[in-house]
Design brief:
Length: 58
């Protein structure tokens, strides 16, 4: 699976949505353990989500 698929799943998680049907939480965790770039991407997405919530943008 490609990084972009994990990032789609991560952004769904951050938004409180369900994972895409082809993605499992275990696969996502395993990828994040081995891919620092997706780990950093997920952190950034989480921070942006918190910021948006604080300013009531979504
Ligand atoms: Zn990755």
């Amino acid at each position: 699976m490609h990084c972009s698929e994990f990032r789609t799943a991560l952004s769904a998680l951050v938004d409180g949505e369900d994972l895409p049907p082809e993605m499992t939480g275990a696969a996502l965790d395993a990828h994040l353990l081995g891919c620092a770039e997706c780990g950093a991407w997920g952190e950034r997405a989480r921070r942006l989500r918190l910021l948006a919530a604080r300013f009531d943008l979504g």
